[in-house]
Design goal:
Elements: H1 2-10, H2 18-41, H3 52-62, H4 69-80
Length: 84
């Protein structure tokens, strides 16, 4: 993703939506990974002794920090000319 953004920037293209896409990708991937880890560990995934519960809290908070992912989805859709 970074290489594509750099290439568009050097070519004079519009890269204003790229940070929103990167944040969406990172936050949604982190949430999916932490939820999958909880599935693998079962009930132990919720126990503080395993440390995963903090990762899940951080991942959930990451989807809402600095504006919600819904806002980012709307911004990306608007820039790409897609209705939402």
């Amino acid at each position: 993703m970074a290489v594509g953004t750099a290439q568009r920037l050097e070519a004079g293209g519009d890269v204003t939506v790229d940070p929103a896409i990167a944040k969406l990708l990172a936050s949604e991937s982190g949430l999916a990974a932490s939820q999958a880890a909880v599935q693998v560990l079962g009930g132990n995934g919720c126990m503080s002794e395993y440390g995963l519960e903090k990762d899940v809290r951080d991942a959930v908070a990451g989807t809402g920090r600095s504006g919600s992912n819904e806002t980012r989805y709307d911004r990306v859709a608007a820039v790409l000319g897609l209705g939402r």
